[in-house]
Amino acid sequence: MKVFLILKKGEKIMQKFNNKTLLLASIISWNQSFGDYDPMKIIMALDSSGQILFSS
């Protein structure tokens, strides 16, 4: 599944994930490696149809 990750600094990154569980695990581990105010933090993930899969 193609997913758009939206970073705190407003940048969009397109990534491919096998399933939603892997996506959420990846986001959690990514966000834990950055502080709350870090611009690289992922604030939202959208699937290709625009549905929100994750929002912080």
Quick one: overall form?
Answer: globular
Helix content estimate? 10-25%
Largest sheet, spatial ordering of strands: 2-1-3-4
Q: What is the mean pLDDT?
A: 95
Largest beta-sheet details: 4 strands, antiparallel
The span between the termini is: 21 Å
Q: Supply the helix-strand structural class.
A: alpha+beta
Query: What is the chain-wise order of helices and strands?
Result: EEHEE
Unreliable segments of 5+ consecutive residues? none
Q: Number of DSSP strands?
A: 4
Taking all Cα atoms into account, the compactness measure Rg is 10 Å
Strand content: 35-45%
User: How many alpha or pi helices?
Assistant: 1
SSE order and pairing:
Blueprint: E1 2-7, E2 12-16, H1 20-32, E3 42-47, E4 52-55
Describe what you observe in this structure.
By secondary structure, the protein is an alpha+beta fold. The protein has one helix at residues 20-32, and strands at residues 2-7, 12-16, 42-47, 52-55. It has a four-stranded antiparallel β-sheet, covered by helices on one side. β1 (2-7) and β2 form a beta hairpin. The longest helix has 13 residues, at 20-32. The radius of gyration is 10 Å and the shape is globular.
